[in-house]
Design brief:
- The structure holds two protein chains of two kinds.
- Chain A is of the alpha/beta class.
- Helices cover 36% and strands 24% of the residues of chain A.
- Chain A has one domain (18-261): Rossmann fold (3-Layer(aba) Sandwich).
- The relative contact order of chain A is 0.17.
- Helix content of chain B is 56%, strand content 16%.
- By secondary structure, chain B is α+β, with helices and mostly antiparallel strands.
- Chain B is globular and about 95 Å long.
- In chain B, the strands form four sheets. In chain B, strands 4, 5, 6, 7, 8, 9, 10 and 11 form an eight-stranded mixed beta sheet that branches. A six-stranded mixed β-barrel of chain B has the order 16-17-22-19-21-20. In chain B, strands 3-13-1-14 form a four-stranded antiparallel beta sheet.
- Classes of the chains: A alpha/beta, B alpha+beta.
Chain lengths: 262, 849
């Protein structure tokens, strides 16, 4: 039995551009009848290879749902979601699991690490689960970039919050996924540790050609991205390229007044 | 605060059920044991309540012979028929009849086997009156038997043998088999229950012929005239009969019988309650473990309560209140389950011949104990975690990863080591045979208990190094899944140990029993090889002795050199009642080879007595000493010790000559015949000849040496089977404990499992991870248990070496099977928790609290 999912042209040269993941008419509806809630309303979006995208929006705007659907963690009501050339909506649980393992990297807000494993074991967890040998050289590069050299043998409980998130980032990178999803990765951190994580994600895009999608509340965090998508009521309402903290904040304020005015 | 408790309970129904399961099982075992013993007691009480006669006259015995050792009434016992007219003439007697009763009478069923002959007594009686004041028998169909070819049977036996009035059946009696017609079916007592015994009734003359004495009754039953009290009548009857006979009122007789019974049943009570105790200890671990985990999981909720201003006491109380609710609910369910368990036990004992009739007895005692045990154990088990929970700092509510303070294992290690050392010392003393056999056995028992508790205390300390060896290979074989399983089993030594402890206790007992069983069987083999000189043994297939005619005829078989008869009885030596065996001195040396320490088999002649050295040592008797023996039917003899031999299970401890036995008034009936063939005789021919003799007596069976050994061994196996059946329940509780722990672990690790799934672990891998963890815990418990059980078994064998269990045999294959079964139990235990974990919604696992 093959342990890898056929992802078409599985390892695409990242400098070439094109889409790492895309959604077409993605709709997500929770509940039925009277209790029906439309979390995502026919969203179409593409994430280009080697690009760092931030998703922003008020609570309940659907930004987390969008990320979960894109990452194969949640089912889709209507529309199409694909990572590389693979249409997620046609996959069963087994194939989705393999896809997450081989083609997607995750950084959550908390509970990122398995407490019984050391930092190094956590980093290699997806490749270990797949039963593959990690790419030594790549692994060393990742670890070096994260800067955890001397803490690799420690358990998560012996690491600070910032260190834990760095391990999580390293794990996400280690399997060379097609795309990394980060769900408020700095939400639980002080500003210095947060800045380190964001700088690290930025570098992974710039130096390693990684594709990163990050959900965040923080305009300062969004400023690290190449572009920012703004969501409201399950729809993409705006998009901004080369954001700064100020322009993002301005835009948020504008959207806020718009929605109140409406 | 109360509302918070109720809400918390309702909000976590699964948690409630899981913690309740532990209580339910523990209580079920206690309740089941109590219901069963009550039902057992009631069955026998019913038997005695069936005594109808106001006054009963019997031959006086020199001491109370007890219910279970009643000697078959023979020529010298019983009451002469001439007493009956004398008693009838006594003023105040309304009616009187002679009763005849003899053991070893069975009806043959359609399958050719004795009905109820699997251990329960078959009793032959006379059915001479329809007067309900004198007889416990009520005719239901047909008529009373008349003449030698007619019998009536009790309703239970008729039911079992599918009998109807008019059928012809064979009847087995001590003196042979006969074909009779069933002319009546009667009910015994009020319920018809006989505890598995069967009754075959004849007319008085035929019943007396079975007894071998036409001028005797077993007893005389008397009905008092209106207005005459039983006591008055008893006094008048006593005045009218010779001093060798005694009269007892219904009240006296009932009381004596049930006193005897209580003595006899105390064994059962203790036996079952020991198992209930084991189940309870195992159950307590489960409850303690479960509550520890629950409190750990709730520590955030409790910290929040603390932050909102709840005092430590309130937090403690809320946990305890939850425990009480769980205890009460669990006890109620346990009580119901215990009922089912008692029904199961009844079926189990029924298959051994002890039948309990009527509905199960549900006494107040059962209810009180069940609730007391369930609620108290649960509360105590919850108290420790409750105390720890109350120490959770309020600030913990604000943190994500709340952990209860882990205490150091140092105190446990010290205490455990102390207990283990104490236990080992007691075991050593017991094995060395300090004190008498029973003393060293109880030393071993106490040592085993200490060692068990010590092991329980130590097992968290041991778990890390042992698991490192036991599960260290998992990562190599199963990769990350194996590594995670290994780490999960190690991450909380206390929890792993507590879960494993339950299985450890069960396995320790099972293992020690199997070592003891194997050693006993091997010892029987060795002993019989050494001492059994006889080529064949003839013994009763059912309870009770048989006619000496068998021996006479066996002697006529060509090729037979000698037939040694062995008879059993009882007597009083000093203040204690002892078991007597009577055997002919001329044959004893041929039938059974004895190692004489002093004297010889010839010392049995005349007024001789042979005792084994354990008795002689205990009583400080030497060859030539005179021992005063009181026989049940009046006689007292001064017997001279003519031989002292090494303990030998085939012989018993006190042996007298057949002559002395007959003089003492015991029935002339044999219990065993040891047949020795002539040198050079063709054994197969001798066997065929003997077969012809025994064919006429279906209640006896001919066994050659191998068959005899197998039969002796199968008795050990039967007892082991019973013990295993009871221990299975404690193992079951242990397995459910693993299910419980794993299920709670899965809930506790929701986030972690969600994360593993998110980063790409397949459901199959997740299930395997939990299964491996379960197997590791199960095998750890089983291994500790097997090691302990081995130690217990070996010491028990050493302690009992003097009692005849002289060979040590470790059933290695069986032990391996136990370990494999434990691993399988681990797989089974993981089924449900693993499914649950695999089904977890990834998204909810990583996003919700």
């Amino acid at each position: 039995m093959s342990d890898t999912v056929e992802l078409g042209e599985s390892r695409v040269d990242r400098d070439e551009g094109g889409d790492a993941a895309r959604a077409d008419g993605l709709t997500k509806i929770y509940g039925q009848g009277d209790t029906e809630v439309v979390a995502l309303d026919s969203v179409s979006v593409a994430f280009r290879r080697g690009e760092f995208t931030a998703i922003m929006g008020p609570s309940g705007s659907g930004k987390s749902t969008l990320m979960h659907c894109m990452a194969g963690l949640d089912s889709v009501s209507r529309g199409r979601v694909s990572i590389g050339d693979v249409d997620l909506t046609t996959l069963g649980d087994k194939q989705l699991t393999r896809l997450r393992r081989d083609a997607v990297g995750f950084v959550f807000q908390a509970f990122n690490l398995v407490p019984t494993l050391t930092a190094r074991e956590n980093i290699t967890l997806p490749t270990d689960i797949a039963g593959r040998k990690p790419d030594r050289a790549w692994l060393d590069t990742v670890i070096e970039t994260v800067g955890l050299g001397d803490r690799l043998g420690h358990r998560p409980s012996e690491l600070s919050g910032g260190q834990q998130q760095r391990v999580a980032c390293a794990r996400a990178l280690a399997s060379r996924p097609q795309i990394i999803f980060a769900d408020e990765p700095t939400g639980n951190l002080d500003s210095r540790s947060g800045a380190e994580i964001l700088a690290f994600l930025r570098r992974s895009v710039d130096e390693m050609g990684q594709t990163v999608v990050m959900v965040t509340h923080d305009p300062g965090a969004a400023a690290y991205a190449d572009r920012v998508l703004f969501l409201a009521d399950g729809r993409i309402v705006d998009e901004m390229r080369s954001p700064t903290a100020e322009t993002v904040l301005e835009e948020l304020k504008r959207l806020d007044t718009l929605s109140r005015g409406a | 605060m109360l509302r918070a408790v109720v809400r918390s309970l309702l909000a976590h129904k699964l948690r409630l059920v899981l913690s309740g399961v532990a209580v339910v099982l523990g209580v079920a075992f206690v309740a089941g044991s109590l219901v069963f013993t009550d039902t057992l007691g009631r069955t026998f009480d019913d038997l005695f309540a069936s005594i109808s006669a106001d006054v009963t006259v019997t031959k006086k015995t020199s001491y109370d012979t007890g219910l279970f050792t009643s000697a078959a009434p023979g020529t010298e016992q019983g009451v002469p028929t001439s007493l009956l007219p004398r008693i009838r003439r006594v003023d105040g007697v309304a009616d009187a009849i002679g009763d005849v009763q003899t053991q070893g009478v069975y009806l043959v069923g359609r399958d050719g086997k004795a009905v109820g002959g699997q251990g329960a007594p078959g009793i032959g009686i006379n059915f001479s009156t329809a007067n309900p004041e004198l007889s416990s028998l009520t005719l239901e169909q047909g008529h009373r038997p008349h003449g030698p070819d007619q019998v009536a049977v009790d309703t239970k036996t008729a039911g079992k043998a599918d009998l109807t009035v008019g059928q012809r059946r064979r009847v087995l009696t001590p003196s042979g088999a006969r074909t009779v017609r069933v002319v009546g079916i009667f009910k015994f007592g009020k319920t018809g229950g006989l505890a598995g015994a069967s009754l075959v009734a004849f007319d008085t003359a035929s019943a007396q012929r079975l007894l071998g004495a036409s001028d005797r009754f077993s007893s005389i039953s008397i009905e008092a005239a209106d207005g005459v009290s039983a006591d008055t009548l008893k006094r008048r009857v006593l005045a009218a009969i010779p001093g060798a006979y005694e009269a007892k009122t219904k009240q006296q007789l009932t009381k004596e019988s049930s006193d005897d019974l209580q003595q006899g049943l105390r064994f059962f009570d203790v036996f079952l309650l020991v198992f209930a105790g084991i189940a309870l200890v195992v159950g307590s671990f489960l409850i303690l473990n479960t509550f520890s985990m629950l409190v750990a999981q709730r520590s955030r909720e409790l910290a929040l309560l603390r932050a909102l201003g709840a005092s430590r006491r309130q937090v403690r109380r809320s946990v305890l209140a939850e425990a009480v609710v769980v205890g009460v609910l669990g006890s109620t369910a346990g009580l119901a389950l215990g009922f089912g368990l008692a029904a199961l036990l009844r079926a189990l004992f029924g298959s051994f011949g002890l039948e309990l009739d009527g509905p199960l007895v549900f006494s107040v005692r059962t209810v009180v104990w069940s609730y007391a045990v369930g609620v108290v154990v649960t509360t105590v088990a919850a108290y420790l975690p409750a105390r720890r929970a109350s120490r959770v700092p309020p600030v913990a509510a604000m943190r994500d990863d709340v952990a209860l303070p882990e205490r150091s294992l140092r105190i446990r290690a010290a205490l455990g080591t102390l207990l283990v050392l104490g236990g080992a010392a007691a075991l050593g003393l017991g094995a060395a045979g300090a004190g008498s056999g029973s003393q060293s056995a109880s030393l071993v028992g106490a040592g085993a208990a200490l060692l068990l508790f010590g092991a329980v205390a130590l097992s968290p300390v041991l778990s890390r190094p042992v698991l490192a060896v036991l599960a260290g290979w998992l990562p190599r074989v199963f990769g990350t899944v194996g590594r995670l399983a290994h780490e999960n089993a190690r991450r909380n030594p206390r929890r792993t140990a507590a879960t494993a402890s339950a299985l450890m206790i069960g396995l320790a007992l099972v293992t020690s029993m199997s070592v003891l069983g194997a050693s006993t069987t091997a010892s029987i083999d060795k002993l019989l090889d050494r001492v059994l000189g006889a080529d064949f043994v003839i013994a009763n297939q059912v309870q009770g002795p048989f006619s000496p005619k068998v021996a006479q005829q066996a002697r006529q078989v060509p090729g037979v050199a000698s037939v040694a008869e062995q008879r059993f009885g009882q007597a009083k030596v000093g203040s204690s009642t002892v078991f007597l065996s009577a055997i002919d001195p001329a044959f004893v040396s041929q039938a059974i080879k004895l190692d004489f320490v002093a004297g010889s088999a010839q010392g049995l002649r005349g007024h001789g007595l042979l005792v084994d050295s354990s008795v002689a040592d205990a009583k400080h008797w030497r060859l030539g000493d005179t021992v005063t023996v009181t026989f049940p039917f009046g006689g007292t003899e001064h017997l001279r010790i003519g031989g002292i031999y090494k303990p030998n299970q085939a012989m018993g401890t006190y042996n007298i000559s057949l002559r002395t036995f007959e003089r003492a008034g015991f029935a002339e009936q044999d219990n065993f015949l040891y047949v020795t063939a002539r040198d050079g005789a063709h054994l197969a021919q001798v066997k065929a000849g003997l077969k012809k003799v025994t064919a006429a007596y279906p209640i006896v069976a001919l066994k050659d040496q191998t068959e005899f050994k197998d039969q002796q061994k199968s008795q050990v196996q039967q007892f082991l089977f019973l013990v295993y059946a009871l221990l299975v329940l404690s193992v079951l509780i242990a397995v459910l404990g693993i299910v419980n722990t794993l299920a709670l672990s899965v809930i506790e690790r929701t986030h972690e499992i969600g994360l593993l799934r998110a980063v790409g672990m397949a459901r199959r891998q997740l299930r395997r991870m939990i299964r491996l963890e379960s197997v590791v815990i199960a095998v750890y418990g089983a291994l500790l248990g097997a090691v302990l059980g081995l130690a217990f078994g070996v010491t028990l064998q050493h302690a009992l070496a003097g009692q005849g269990i002289e060979v040590l045999r470790v059933p290695a294959v069986q032990l391996v099977v136990f370990l494999v079964l434990a691993a399988l139990a681990g797989v089974l235990a993981a089924l449900w928790p693993a499914r649950r974990a695999a089904r977890l919604d990834v998204l909810r696992a990583i996003t919700t609290e």
